[in-house]
Amino acid sequence: MAQTTLSIRMDENVKKQFDTFCSEVGINTSVAINMFAKTVIREQRIPFDIALKQDPFYNEANMARLKQSIAQMEATGGTVHELIEVSDD
Length: 89
Fold this sequence. Notes:
The chain is elongated. It has 89 residues and is mostly helical. The chain has three helices and no strands. The model has no long low-confidence stretch (mean pLDDT 90). The longest helix has 17 residues, at 60-76. The chain has a domain at 12-43. It has helices at 12-24, 29-43, 60-76.
């Protein structure tokens, strides 16, 4: 199979850390990039999630609890409470 060269730009510190990681797991940077490319081709997707960091408040458990509370309020009419502010003094 014919070989070709791929040139990419990346932060110098990121490259150093990546090179160190690759060395620690017994491969070089070229092998790691080839593994990534072959996985993308085989799976027809980026082999990891790409997402914005989610606010931990909106995790599945909290959202389920919120939906349960809303359903309970809608079923019973709920109780209205007055907000009382407390001073830290």
